[in-house]
Amino acid sequence: MDETNISWLLAAACLLAGIGIGALGYHLLNASAGNTQRLRQRLAERERALAELKDGLGDSLERIGQLAESLRRECQNLEQEAATASTTLGAPSLRRQAMDAATPAPAEEADAPAVPRDYADGNRGTLSEDFGLKQSEEGATPQPPRY
């Protein structure tokens, strides 16, 4: 074999090896690019779902605001109805006014009932601090009874 044939054979082998290594590298790098593409797609789907939830939340908050305003108006109407009813129902009727004018007012009692006590006048009761203590010598503190 000639040296030129060996050179061409070596060049062809290197070319095939380079193509093989390039294809392997592309396959390995493209696999991670595919994962990246899938991750981007899932991220876009999640962002779209989040945007839909935000729109739905805005709509529901708007509806809640409308219901709260309606409730406030109904409450004001109810308060007005209660005020008008209390003025019309709370006013004494003509018959009641005539009956009140015809009956004399009862005289108030001058003596109010006394507040109940736990002892009689002049005696110390069971709520006194020295109840049941025996008096010993003068100036000494009283001692409790011994059983």
Task: Name its key features.
elongated, mainly alpha, 0% strand, single chain, 147 residues
How is this structure best described in words?
This protein is an all-alpha fold. Helix content is 66%, strand content 0%. It contains 2 helices and no strands. The model has no long low-confidence stretch (mean pLDDT 80).
| Helical segment count | 2
Topology, number of strands: 0
Biggest β-sheet strands, sense, barrel = none
Shape: elongated
- What class, by secondary structure content? mainly alpha
What proportion of the residues is helical, as a percent range? 55-70%
Please summarize what this structure is.
The chain is built from 2 helices and no strands.
Write the layout of secondary structure elements.
Blueprint (H helix, E strand, L loop, with lengths): L2 H88 L3 H9 L45
